[in-house]
Design goal:
The chain has one domain (about 1-400): Up-down Bundle (Growth Hormone, Chain: A), CATH 1.20.1250.20. About 75% of the residues lie in helices and about 0% in strands. It has helices at about 1-25, 30-55, 60-85, 90-115, 125-150, 155-175, 190-195, 195-200, 205-220, 220-225, 225-235, 240-265, 270-290, 295-325, 325-340, 345-355, 360-380, and strands spanning about 390, 395-400. The protein has a two-stranded antiparallel ribbon. A hairpin with a 5-residue loop joins strand 1 (about 390) and strand 2 (about 395-400).
């Protein structure tokens, strides 16, 4: 699964970077670029809850196979559409939305499958390794995508990505995925669909992780989708050039460092401290990135931005996964996917018009302010008195601490009937 996902992730990042550059080249408008990103990620906001409910209900292997096949077909259609000449903007948005639908079904299911492939003691390492392969792909994919885009055009890049879905399909064909344990057969219908919200409402730690991630994604991360605009308007870099691919590669290298560090050199650190340090470091690095107007210093700064960005996310993800019981994991991880990926398109809808009226630096500026506010919130939250949570037996208990991520080694919480990121 690791190798199959790694190969597919390379293709996904080739397409992601190329799609943004192609949309800006096609329209010349940051607003249209924001619409394309919304079409790509918006389904995660609308359908992740459904995907998470299905992940806890149906055979996860079959659901993953369906999601991969759907994305393969939609991506192949995108490649054909672009290769035939200048497509209509509405057709481009529609096909990209279909790709996003497949991703919305895939992400919460894959997140739920990952812990079942390893023991709980290896979970932090597995999540760190998975984050690492995603970010190595973030380095390799843009580099390959930039070369292929310049040499063969966007259609060829999208065609290559379509082929890479086969790697995950092959992996799913040969790997045994343990079945989901059913803990409450009365949990059906609407109660099953909203079960993740029930867990988040009853479990203080889960709720804090999700709220922190959602706010961070909404206000701090829109600059990633607008990276072609940052390169073009702030740094004088052509988004279809190898220099732009290098800029994105530097950002990915930093993200690799952040992901690896959480499961290795920083594995013994309190995760509440890692989250606060990550938010403060991200705010400082993004502030510098926002004011730069020369390409040369932008490359090392992009490394720092990526480092603090994904270190924070990985620390939150490990904490959340270690907290969950497998029977509700899919539904809660659907909320993580919504918080991580689903709120980003809303941020793009805000960032595109704001960039048109002001500048991309203003967008990064309010991201800096939001990161500082989150760091201050988590710091204040530590001093709060413990609150009652729900024990596995359904009786109230008192949380050991108010820290955002102090329960890294806590036992999973299974909410009482009705039971209930990314």
């Amino acid at each position: 699964m690791f190798l199959g996902s790694f190969a597919s992730s390379i293709g996904t990042w080739m397409q992601h970077v190329t799609l943004g550059a192609y949309a800006l080249e096609l329209s010349g408008s940051p607003t249209f670029l924001g619409l394309v990103l919304f079409a790509q990620l918006g389904p995660m906001l609308a359908l992740s809850v459904l995907g998470g409910a299905l992940a806890d209900l149906v055979d996860r292997r079959r659901l993953l196979l369906f999601a991969q096949a759907e994305q393969l077909v939609a991506t192949a259609v995108l490649a054909v559409l672009v290769s035939r000449g200048r497509p209509s903007e509405s057709a481009l948005l529609a096909v990209v939305a279909f790709i996003g639908i497949g991703a919305a079904l895939h992400q919460p299911t894959y997140s739920a499958v990952l812990p079942s492939l390893v023991g709980r003691g290896s979970l932090a390492g597995a999540i760190s390794a998975n984050s690492t392969q995603m970010n190595v792909a973030r380095v390799v994919g843009p580099a390959l995508g930039g070369v292929a885009f310049a040499a063969f055009g966007a259609g060829a890049v999208f065609g290559i990505n379509a082929v890479t879905y086969l790697f995950v399909i092959v992996a799913l064909a040969v790997v045994r995925i343990p079945p989901v344990a059913r803990t409450d057969e009365a949990d059906v219908g609407w109660r099953r669909l909203v079960g993740g919200f029930t867990v988040a409402r009853r479990d203080r730690l889960v709720r804090r992780c999700l709220l922190t991630m959602a706010t961070f994604s909404l206000l701090c991360l829109p600059f990633i989708g607008q990276m072609p605009t940052v390169a073009q308007r702030n740094l004088g870099i052509d988004p279809s050039s190898a220099a732009y691919g290098l800029l994105y590669t530097c950002f990915g290298l930093g993200a690799i460092g952040g992901a690896v560090s959480i499961g290795t050199v920083l594995s013994g650190w309190p995760r509440d401290r890692l989250v606060r340090m990550g938010l403060l470091g991200f705010a400082a690095a993004l502030a510098v990135f926002a004011v730069l107007r020369q390409p040369a210093p932008a490359y090392p700064v992009a490394v720092a931005v990526g480092l603090f960005y994904f270190g924070t996310i990985t620390a939150l993800s490990v904490t959340l996964q270690e907290r969950l019981d497998d029977a509700v994991r899919g539904r809660v991880m659907a909320l993580w996917v919504m918080a991580f990926g689903g709120t980003i398109p809303l941020g793009h809808l805000l960032a595109g018009p704001l960039t048109e009226r002001t500048s991309i630096s203003w967008v990064m500026g309010y991201g800096v302010v939001a990161a500082l506010a989150l760091a201050a919130y988590t710091r204040r939250d530590v001093a709060e008195a413990p609150v009652a949570e729900v024990s596995p037996a359904g009786t109230p208990r008192v949380a050991d601490t108010g820290e955002l991520t102090a329960a890294a080694g806590a036992q999973p919480v299974v909410p009482a009937p009705p039971p209930g990121c990314p």
